[in-house]
Design brief:
Elements lengths: L2 H4 L5 H4 L6 H14 L5 E2 L16 H8 L3 H5 L8 H12 L2 H7 L3 E7 L1 H12 L6 E5 L5 H8 L3 E5 L15 H14 L2 E6 L13 H17 L4 E8 L10 H11 L8 E8 L12 E7 L2 H18 L6 H9 L3 H31 L12 E5 L3 H9 L3 E2 L1 E3 L2 E5 L8 H11 L2
Parallel strand pairs: 1-10, 3-4, 3-5, 5-6, 6-7
Antiparallel strand pairs: 2-8, 7-8, 9-12, 11-12
Helix pairs in contact: 6-14, 7-12, 8-13, 10-11, 11-12, 15-17, 16-17
The structure holds pyridoxal-5'-phosphate.
Pyridoxal-5'-phosphate binds next to helix 8.
């Protein structure tokens, strides 16, 4: 009898939850090789490490947190978040386009959440009708499936990249996206798509302006054609502040509206904001869901829905980082000091990525396009086999569905070329 079958106290939906320990098991392999004295390379972790192997910490954020009054650590935050933090979350989502969008009549609300994961949970539990599917790219962050299936939803996918590149929409398979959209809009009462852009996990892909514009246009046109079907575009901005165009989506939305793209009533656009990476406070669980819509009364209602969902799930999100970061960004010197540190960390990633892509080129390793953020990706039919062959050379990566994730964020710069060489050997 399987252990779970004997666990009569575990409901069937509890039994469906199986561990996602691939990343940790490959990390453990790295750790045991390193402990045995090998010059092992750790490309398994999804956090930014300095070249020394220590966790990279934004020193300005760390310093500000240490100076916070005791009450800010101890007290509850308001259920929907501290007002100044909610304002900051909207600015982090929209950047310099915020004013322009507001002048156009677009309203915004934010709800504080425990990290970007909390924002994804709010979306999964409220925007897609139970039993219906959320549209994702076929390569996506593994935990998406847990958030989605845990809320009684299904997953539909379209390819990350087109088989034949269309120069008018680089890195975007528009025909497949539209086909899936059409299918969902004609069979479901809600259409929701989640898009981790820019700086996609696990590939590092960022969509250029023309592809963002095309995706938005296809989505809005579907909403217009299907006026009784709710349409939600969720932009997962977990890594956006390390990207070349951090606020590209807000710019695209503003430009499209300027050019006359309509905003139908049944369209909602949201940003899942995470401060885990941008402010290096992974463990402090701070993020927000930011929603955009032109109708103020719908937004007021939505704010209650989000607040109540949070209340029923985690109560209030942690307070101290909400307080400290809204104070830090409320004056120019604070924002500038934070961005200097952020720039230093972004440069670490840039140098590693440039060297990696160049080494792959020299070694004839066909890696995926990778532009920003923490990761790069080697697409292959046998991810386990490739990761094992790399591990034989003491380069530890993570095999996932459809390819191998290369954690540039964790790999010391001096070892980057070894990763490309290991992949070259692994591909035979
Ligand atoms: C693609 C993506 N989205 C969202 C998150 C959420 O991060 P957190 O909940 O730590 O803020 C992560 C974290 O790794 C991620 O990779």
């Amino acid at each position: 009898m399987r252990t779970e079958e004997a666990m009569h106290y575990l409901a069937s939906h509890g039994q469906q939850k199986t561990g996602n320990d691939t990343i940790f098991s490959w990390l453990a392999r790295y750790q045991s090789a390193a402990a045995a004295g090998a010059r092992a390379v750790n490309g398994t972790i999804g956090a930014l490490l300095e070249d020394s192997g220590d966790l990279a910490i934004n020193q300005v954020v760390d310093q500000a947190l240490r100076e916070a009054p005791a009450a800010e650590f101890s007290a509850y935050a308001p259920l929907k978040g501290l007002p100044n933090f909610l304002d900051l979350a909207i600015s982090l989502a929209l950047g310099d386009s915020r004013g322009r969008l507001e002048v156009m009549g677009l309203g915004t609300i934010a709800t504080a959440t425990p990290g970007g994961s909390g924002a994804l949970y709010l979306a999964a539990s409220n925007f897609t009708e139970r039993g219906e599917a959320v549209l994702l790219r076929d390569r996506h962050w593994g935990p998406y499936s847990g958030f989605i299936t845990g809320c009684g939803l299904n997953i539909a996918t379209y390819p990350l990249l087109p088989e034949i590149e269309d120069p008018s929409t680089p890195f975007f398979d528009r025909p497949s996206f539209e086909r899936e959209l059409e299918h969902l809009a004609s069979t479901q009462t809600t259409v929701t798509t989640w898009l981790n852009d820019p700086a996609h996990n696990p590939t590092g892909l960022s969509m250029p302006a023309e592809s963002r514009h095309a995706l938005l246009t296809s989505f809005v046109e579907s909403a217009v054609r299907n006026e009784h079907v709710g349409h939600t575009l969720l932009l997962d901005a977990a890594y956006h502040l390390y990207a070349d165009e951090p606020h590209g989506w807000a710019e695209t939305i503003a430009e499209a509206l300027d050019d006359g793209l309509p905003w139908p009533e049944n369209l909602l656009i949201c940003f899942a904001i995470s401060l885990s990476k941008s402010h290096t406070i992974y463990g402090m669980r701070t993020g927000a869901l930011v929603c955009l819509h032109p109708d103020e009364s719908s937004l007021t209602r939505l704010k209650d829905v989000m607040g109540v969902t949070g209340r029923q799930t985690w109560s209030a999100a942690p307070r101290v980082a909400q307080y400290v970061l809204s104070e830090l960004h409320s004056h120019e010197e604070g924002g500038v000091a934070w961005s200097h540190e952020r720039d230093r960390l972004a440069e670490l990633l840039n140098v590693r990525r440039t060297r990696f892509l160049q080494a792959c080129d020299e070694n004839h390793v066909q890696v995926n396009p990778s532009h920003d953020g923490f990761f790069a990706w080697y697409e292959c039919d046998d991810p386990e086999g490739v990761a094992n062959a790399c591990a034989d050379q003491h380069v530890y990566l993570v095999p996932l569905s459809g390819g191998v994730r290369i954690g540039l964020c964790a790999i010391p710069t001096e070892f980057i070329e070894r990763v490309a060489e290991a992949l070259a050997k692994a591909q035979g």
